[in-house]
Specification:
It contains six helices and four strands. It is an alpha+beta fold. A four-stranded mixed beta sheet has the order 2-1-3-4. Helix 2 links the parallel strand 1 (43-47) and strand 2. The radius of gyration is 21 Å and the shape is globular. The N and C termini lie far apart (65 Å). The relative contact order is 0.14.
Length: 171
């Protein structure tokens, strides 16, 4: 088809041959990936605002989507007003265990699939697809499980997070 279109464009024809149609083609997405088309049905990323690693990544993603600021809603679960019922029942404790993202269809994704949805929403769909690629996925799942299990300790917040909400150290 592309060779016919290219031939038409280079030969200066003003209309395409009848066999070439310009239907809107939607790229095939994996079942974990979704496109965001409007801000009212945007992606919601639940993140720990007291985790320096998490905050660094969220700031980068916010930078990537600065031309479409309402496409992704970044929700800081560390704020005292966080209510999991507003976010498909994802409690503070659940969100602290692993990354949660709610897509534009109101489906909750956890772990590596959550990252894939989040990256796709900010224009890094290639990275999300790579993470979900079957040869890479087991490594990503294991690596993320190690990170999620240890991130509080690695960011100096292990003890204060064992009961209730984490609090930022004042030292």
């Amino acid at each position: 088809m592309f060779s016919k279109v290219r031939m038409c464009l280079t030969s200066g024809l003003t209309r395409l041959p009848a066999c070439v149609t310009l239907n809107k083609v939607t790229p095939a997405l994996c079942r974990h990936q979704h496109r965001t088309f409007s801000s009212e049905s945007g992606v919601k990323v639940l993140y720990d605002g007291l985790c320096p690693i998490c905050v660094t990544e969220i700031r980068f993603l916010q930078f990537l989507q600065k031309k479409q600021p309402d496409k992704v809603d970044f929700v800081d679960i560390s704020l005292s007003g966080y209510d999991g019922e507003k976010y498909k029942g994802v409690s503070y404790e659940m969100a602290m265990e692993e990354m949660h993202v709610i897509d534009e269809k109101d489906e909750v994704h956890r772990g590596i699939p959550a990252f894939a949805v989040m990256y796709s929403a900010v224009g890094l769909g290639w990275l999300g697809r790579f993470m979900m690629w079957p040869p890479v996925r087991p490594f990503m799942d294991k690596s993320y499980a190690v990170f999620a299990r240890n991130r509080l300790k690695w960011t100096g917040r292990g003890e204060e997070c064992t009961t209730g909400r984490c609090e930022k150290k004042t030292q």
